[in-house]
Design a protein that fits this description.
mainly beta; five-stranded mixed sheet; four-stranded antiparallel sheet; about 0% helix
Length: about 200
């Protein structure tokens, strides 16, 4: 500000406390199934967090913000796993990761350089070896089933291998190149984010 009485300048500096700002070295820890509130005070602000995930778990990040924001999850080396955009006053639960005993990092920043307030809740659940075949009849050319949502499904029948993708409800289906046999074995393996999470053999 200008000081008319002395003809000189005075510099005024304001600062905001933000323990989660910047790189992952300054990241704050998230605890499973606890809700966190934060804010971005500057247009260039980036908040960083991390969570340690036990083996055989799935973490689903529940996110909300009062203004548009970007969120990215990455491994402990900063390599991106996935990202999403959070829209104003709309709950976003699209980010999830399989726990293998690793550290997962999360960063959030404004999409339009504005101050914003946000919430994060990492919901962590144990994985169940859950695979169901809802349709596999001898003499037919298809198999239908249900498992972990958005997972990758591999079905092996003899020497034949088929790939499928489970949808948002966990449903999947495959078309077969030959008829199912009444006494054949069907081996189903489920992976997510490159991690095997379930496996089962049906007869």
């Amino acid at each position: 500000s200008w000081d008319e009485g002395h003809g000189d300048y005075k510099l005024s500096i304001e600062s905001w406390t933000d323990d989660s700002w910047g790189g992952f070295d300054n990241a704050s820890e998230l605890k499973a199934n606890e809700k966190y509130k934060g804010s971005l005070e500057l247009s260039t602000d980036i908040d960083s967090y991390y969570i340690n995930l036990p083996e055989k778990t799935e973490c689903n990040f529940i996110l909300s913000s009062d203004k548009p924001a970007y969120v990215q999850i990455a491994d402990e080396n900063g390599i991106k796993i996935n990202d999403t955009k959070v829209y104003k006053d709309v709950v976003n639960d699209s980010l999830s990761v399989i726990g293998t005993g690793q550290k997962v990092t999360l960063r959030i920043w404004s999409s339009d350089n504005q101050y914003l307030a946000y919430t994060i809740k990492p919901v962590v659940k144990g994985l169940k070896n859950s695979i169901k075949l809802t349709k596999y009849t001898a003499g037919t050319y298809s198999i239908e089933g249900k498992t972990l949502k958005n997972s990758d499904v591999q079905i092996k029948i003899g020497k034949d291998v088929y790939e499928a993708k489970a949808d948002e409800k966990g449903k999947f289906s495959v078309s077969l190149s030959r008829k199912l046999k009444s006494k054949g074995k069907i081996k189903v393996t489920v992976t997510k984010d490159g991690v095997k999470v379930a496996g089962k053999t049906f007869k």
